[in-house]
């Protein structure tokens, strides 16, 4: 039996302990925006380096509630918040990195055009961003709510199905006073639970403007060249090969795209005659989604910058 036992014996050196844990490799995750970014020294930037870019998305029909961040991250189709999120993702994300030279501006206009809200997401400074639409929506919601904290309770009461006062017309003065006091407590408690009460979002700036022109002036600040994406425009290679139209305004390049409603005639006139925008076509004459246009515009700019680096020049002229 000894030879048989020795033949069946398995060397202990080649076996692994049943209690030994296998090392599991962490799943590959999409890149997130940096949690902390250093400030780049502009004086050391070479003329052949990346040109600062602005992606401007014209958002139409934005209700006062959506503009204040009172939307549901579980239903992004309501108010077409999904378009905002996809444009932010398309404007800032590469496959393995974040475009730190790009700022995405959401120009939010109401139906009455009484005012505009500008929400700017800076790829070099934003924290906690991830490509998932819901993640983008939650950050936008927090930033927009924080900018409208003093208006949130009133807007929430006016919203369909919103919070209503429980005080009746026939109640006595004492009941009214007590009910009003309780209502203020409930309102304060409700406000504390809103995402906007957590403070602003680093890298996301929110500002309100009295007109479209002042809003666009803020979004296009520092951009010497502005391209309005239009199916009837010139080919992107021709537009990008031209020198900047307004080099005194800065060395940045701005791309303006409309949401599902496109760009209105008034917006087109303002962009072309006030800011010198030129029409640029992408997609070979096909109507594309706004987020697709942003990706193709980035690709065209990347290709032109690579070509100019080989030639020793830059988009700055």
Automatic annotation (TrEMBL):
GO molecular function: S-adenosylmethionine-dependent methyltransferase activity; tRNA methyltransferase activity
Positions with biased composition (Basic residues): 20-33
UniProt keyword Transferase, yes or no: yes
Keywords, comma-separated and alphabetical: Cytoplasm, Methyltransferase, S-adenosyl-L-methionine, Transferase
Residue ranges with Low complexity bias: 1-19
Ranges annotated as biased composition (Basic and acidic residues): 166-195
Biological process, per Gene Ontology: tRNA methylation
Source taxon at top rank: Eukaryota
Region (Disordered): 1-51, 158-204
Entry-linked PANTHER family: TRNA (PSEUDOURIDINE(54)-N(1))-METHYLTRANSFERASE
Name of the protein this chain belongs to: Uncharacterized protein
């Amino acid at each position: 039996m000894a030879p048989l036992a020795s033949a069946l014996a398995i060397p202990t050196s080649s076996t692994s302990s049943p209690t030994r844990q296998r090392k599991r490799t962490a799943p590959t995750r999409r890149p997130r925006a940096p949690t902390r970014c250093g400030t780049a020294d502009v004086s050391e930037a070479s003329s052949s380096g990346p040109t600062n870019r602005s992606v401007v998305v014209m958002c139409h029909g934005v209700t006062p509630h959506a503009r204040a961040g009172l939307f549901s991250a579980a239903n992004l189709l309501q108010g077409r918040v999904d378009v905002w999120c996809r444009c932010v993702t398309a404007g800032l994300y590469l496959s393995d990195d974040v475009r730190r030279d790009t700022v995405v501006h959401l120009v939010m206009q109401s139906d009455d055009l009484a005012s505009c809200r500008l929400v700017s997401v800076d790829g070099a400074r934003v924290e906690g961003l991830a490509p998932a639409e819901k993640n983008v929506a939650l950050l936008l919601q927090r930033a927009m709510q924080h900018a409208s904290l003093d208006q949130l309770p009133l807007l929430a009461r006016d919203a369909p199905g919103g919070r209503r006062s429980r005080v009746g017309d026939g109640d006595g003065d004492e009941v009214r006073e007590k009910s009003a006091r309780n209502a203020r407590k409930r309102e304060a408690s409700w406000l504390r639970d809103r995402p906007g009460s957590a403070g602003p979002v680093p890298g996301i700036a929110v500002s309100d403007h009295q007109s479209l022109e002042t809003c666009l002036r803020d979004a296009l600040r520092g951009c010497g060249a502005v391209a309005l994406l239009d199916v009837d425009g010139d080919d992107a290679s021709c537009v990008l090969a031209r020198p900047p139209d307004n080099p005194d305004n800065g060395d940045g390049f701005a791309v303006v795209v409309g949401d599902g409603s496109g760009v209105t005639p008034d917006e087109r006139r303002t962009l072309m005659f006030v800011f010198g925008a030129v029409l640029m076509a992408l997609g070979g004459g096909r109507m594309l989604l706004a987020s697709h246009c942003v990706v193709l515009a980035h690709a065209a700019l990347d290709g032109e910058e690579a070509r100019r680096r080989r030639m020793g020049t830059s988009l700055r002229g």
